[in-house]
Specification:
This protein is α+β, with helices and mostly antiparallel strands and 413 residues long. It folds into three domains: 86 residues; 92 residues, Phosphorylase Kinase, domain 1, CATH 3.30.200; 215 residues, Transferase(Phosphotransferase), domain 1. The strands form five sheets. It has a four-stranded antiparallel beta sheet with strand order 3-4-6-5, sandwiched between helices. It has a two-stranded antiparallel sheet with strand order 1-2. Strands 7-10 form a two-stranded antiparallel ribbon. Strand 5 and strand 6 form a beta hairpin. The longest helix has 53 residues. This is Probable receptor-like protein kinase At1g80640.
Length: 413
């Protein structure tokens, strides 16, 4: 029923009643003479009395009308929100993506479940990544986020907000999102080769990653970080960079993901700092005093560079009671030109020029320096790595100055 008609009718009835009540008791026809003076005095007193009597009914009628209007508005708003919530849970007959968060589509859970074959096809060994095949031949990567805690919700919202406005060839594109029964899903563009973590530490053990491919991955990752640090206003600190955050397409092009803990430079809070980074990738200053800057991302990048060189995990347990970091294990050996080839990943050992290997080792050593001030900027890292990548893989053969060494003792070129 249309609520406008009763309101209009009620308003009309109240107005008519009030108007009639204020009309004079004496009604003279055009053929009669004006009322005598005594009656005029009586009418004036009668109208004055009516003015006093009608004040309370007018106020009550106005309040009642306001309450009715407010109730109808609240009911309409609640009905609209309920309708939107029901849309997020059920699929429409057309099977199209509906709903918006900014300009980002919200995907029905039923559609997402059908496209991913009940979330049965894994793409990567970590992070709950699934392949989803939508209509019209569209394939996407679905990341499932579990947890009902408030911090998970903040991270989910943060990633959506950032990825809906950031556009860069080495930053992952977000196709859509879904929320269902406390579980959240992020739908990325398809990345056929999964994560760098899977490629390096999964069943293939890095066999698909040649020296040049690894350098391309390092360059692409550096490009993405340089964009965040140098070309965003304010600069964005990723805060959670790790090998599982680096997604690879069919040509091993890099797309950086996992922006749930990303913050604008200068705006980080204690909640972010307490959860920032994964084990083995967290810079020392973050652990000691909660300091999070662009140099914290540089440290995490240095750890990834060591992973690419050594083929080792960022943290390993040689024995059940011991835990060894790749930084503490590798850095003392990086400065030894003769020892360096023996600690390189056997998959790529002796497949590169020694001077190139030494240069990458020097860059990695600089990036993981304990003091943030000794670490280079991502721009410097990028410019030092590009000459090591062939032109056909996006690099350049142009001769460039090597990375300036903040710590001369650990820099071996």
């Amino acid at each position: 029923m249309n609520p406008t008609l009763p309101i209009w009718a009620l308003f009309l009835l109240i107005s008519t009643a009030l108007t009639n009540a204020r009309d004079p008791i004496y009604v003279a026809s055009p053929l009669t003479s004006p009322p005598p003076p005594e009656m005029q005095i009586t009418l004036k007193h009668h109208n004055h009395h009516l003015d006093k009597v009608l004040v309370l009914p007018i106020i009550l009628a106005s309040v009642a009308l306001a309450i009715i209007l407010l109730s109808i508005c609240c009911g309409w708003t609640f009905q609209r929100k309920s309708h939107q919530n029901s849309d997020s849970e059920d699929i429409r007959p057309s099977g199209k993506m509906v709903g918006k968060k900014g300009l980002l589509p919200m995907i029905h859970y039923t559609l997402l479940e059908a496209a991913s074959n009940q979330f049965s096809e894994f793409s990567g060994v970590s992070g709950y990544l699934y392949k989803a095949h939508f209509d019209e031949g569209i394939t996407a990567l679905v990341k499932k986020l579990n947890g009902r805690k408030q911090e998970y919700e903040r991270e989910f919202e943060n990633e959506i907000d950032l990825l809906s406005i950031i556009c860069h060839p080495n930053i992952i594109s977000l196709v859509g999102y879904c929320v269902h029964a406390g579980t959240r899903f992020l739908v990325y563009e398809m990345m056929e080769n999964g994560t760098l973590e899977t490629q390096l530490h999964g069943p293939s053990r890095g066999s698909a990653l040649s020296w040049h491919i690894r350098m391309k991955i390092a360059v692409d990752t550096a490009k993405g970080l340089e964009f965040l640090h140098e070309h965003c206003n304010p600069p964005i600190i990723h805060g959670d960079l790790k090998s599982s955050s680096i997604l690879l397409d069919s040509e091993f092009n890099v797309k950086i993901s996992d922006f749930g803990l990303a913050v604008a430079a200068g705006s980080q809070n204690k909640a972010n700092l307490q959860r920032s980074g994964a084990l083995g990738y967290v810079a020392p200053e973050c652990l000691l005093n909660g300091e999070l800057t662009e140099k914290s991302d540089v440290y995490a990048f240095g750890v990834i560079l060591l992973e690419l060189l050594m083929g080792r995990k960022p943290v390993e347990k040689p024995t059940p009671s011991q835990c060894q970091s790749i930084v503490t294990w590798a850095v003392p050996q990086l400065a030894d030109r003769l020892q360096l080839p023996s600690i390189v990943d056997p998959v790529i050992r002796n497949t590169m020029e020694l001077k190139h290997l030494c240069q990458v080792a020097a860059i990695a050593a600089l990036c993981v320096q304990p003091e943030p001030g000794y670490r280079p900027l991502m721009t410097d890292v990028l410019h030092s790595l590009i000459p090591l990548v062939p032109i056909e893989l996006g690099g350049t053969t142009r001769v460039m100055e090597p990375l300036a060494c903040a710590n001369k003792e650990s820099c071996v070129i």
